[in-house]
Amino acid sequence: MDKIKYFYQERKKVIDLFFIIFIVGTLSFGLGYLTNREFSHAPIIIERCSN
């Protein structure tokens, strides 16, 4: 347990920055996914071929 505490104390800024970026990225992805799910797009219909 002491090794983990020492490792964290030595690299506190880098580990905290990583977690902040990870949380912001995850929240951004989740919010974008939820926002896009609300809109239902009409399907594409091809009426005739063009020659």
Description of the structure:
It is a single chain. With 51 residues, the chain is mostly helical. The relative contact order is 0.07. The protein has helices spanning 2-10, 12-37.
Produce the secondary structure layout:
Elements lengths: L1 H9 L1 H26 L14
Brief rundown of the structure:
With 51 residues, the protein is mainly α. The chain has 2 helices and no strands.
H/I helix tally:
2
Helix percent reads: 55-70%
Which word captures the global form? rod-shaped
What class would the helix/strand composition place it in?
Answer: mainly alpha
Distance between the termini: 73 Å
Number of strands: 0
Average of the residue pLDDT scores:
87
The percent range for strand residues is under 5%
Largest sheet composition: none
Low-confidence stretches: none
Please tell me how large the radius of gyration is: 23 Å
Order of helices and strands: HH
List descriptors.
mainly alpha; 51 residues; 2 helices; single chain
